[in-house]
Amino acid sequence: MATETKEVEADTGSAVRERLYPFVVGARRTWKQFTQSKLGVMGLFIIAAISFIAVFAPYIAPHPLEWQAFGNNPTFQQASQLPHPPAFGDPFFAPLGTDHLGHGILTQLIYGSRTALFIGLAAGILSSLVGVPLGVISGYYSNTWVDEGIQRVVDVMYGLPFLPLVIVLVFINGVTTTNIILGIVAKSWLNNAIVVRGQVLSLSKRPFVEAAEASGASDFRIMWRHILPNVLPLGFIYLAQDAAFAILIQASLAFLGLADFTQVSWGRCSSGFRYRGTSTRRRGG
């Protein structure tokens, strides 16, 4: 009885391995093609570094996020010294100085990596989830009404400027992190769709795709099992690019005052730098 049970378990394990083998081979091929792109590897390294800083922010930051130079209730003379420059030996030492409220700039930058990572990855993943499937569908059904419809939408969206479009969408829907991400995705998926479509136009003429069509495979199976694994490296490259660009866009929106200032972010730090320069000139004048 025990021998029969072991044989059944072995057969089940073999069936599972056989079913997962194509996905394992596709993942290895995707990783090999992805690592051939220096830009993609650099983007992956940057995302990994930001992820490390975001996870260990409480241990890396020199002060807690609520920390203020001179305490929570500085005197008028102490407050007039803010923003405070770096000064070794001070009990309120901040390596990059402080903002007009006395919060450490370096601490805000380190904790802001969490917001930047969330917005970057969310926008990058959503852009890939929209752009890559549309690019595959458009390339596979080239010269049809499906392809024409997708490409006309892309042409119209390309004619709209990126940052002003995001500003309008965020202003209409409300200044929240979710609306900022959706506003970025509304424009950033275009490059994914265009590049993936060009790659699919080349892949659709390959012998393995023609063999799948001759064997009677459905269009969905061909796109999912034969074409998509070969365009995933491009999708990962543009995901890293879109994530980095989304962080820059969010910082630009925050600098213009269109951000959720209840959360610390790199954009809020940049607006703090702007306020500091204005207040410094005002005192100097």
Automatic annotation (TrEMBL):
<dbReference type="InterPro" id="IPR035906">
    <property type="entry name" value="MetI-like_sf"/>
</dbReference>
<feature type="transmembrane region" description="Helical">
    <location>
        <begin position="116"/>
        <end position="141"/>
    </location>
</feature>
<comment type="similarity">
    <text>Belongs to the binding-protein-dependent transport system permease family.</text>
</comment>
<dbReference type="InterPro" id="IPR000515">
    <property type="entry name" value="MetI-like"/>
</dbReference>
<dbReference type="GO" id="GO:0005886">
    <property type="term" value="C:plasma membrane"/>
</dbReference>
<feature type="domain" description="ABC transmembrane type-1">
    <location>
        <begin position="113"/>
        <end position="285"/>
    </location>
</feature>
<feature type="transmembrane region" description="Helical">
    <location>
        <begin position="39"/>
        <end position="61"/>
    </location>
</feature>
<keyword id="KW-1003">Cell membrane</keyword>
<keyword id="KW-0472">Membrane</keyword>
<dbReference type="InterPro" id="IPR025966">
    <property type="entry name" value="OppC_N"/>
</dbReference>
<keyword id="KW-1133">Transmembrane helix</keyword>
<keyword id="KW-0813">Transport</keyword>
<dbReference type="Pfam" id="PF00528">
    <property type="entry name" value="BPD_transp_1"/>
</dbReference>
<feature type="transmembrane region" description="Helical">
    <location>
        <begin position="236"/>
        <end position="258"/>
    </location>
</feature>
<keyword id="KW-0812">Transmembrane</keyword>
<dbReference type="GO" id="GO:0055085">
    <property type="term" value="P:transmembrane transport"/>
</dbReference>
<protein>
    <submittedName>
        <fullName>Dipeptide transporter</fullName>
    </submittedName>
</protein>
<dbReference type="InterPro" id="IPR050366">
    <property type="entry name" value="BP-dependent_transpt_permease"/>
</dbReference>
<feature type="transmembrane region" description="Helical">
    <location>
        <begin position="162"/>
        <end position="186"/>
    </location>
</feature>
<dbReference type="Pfam" id="PF12911">
    <property type="entry name" value="OppC_N"/>
</dbReference>
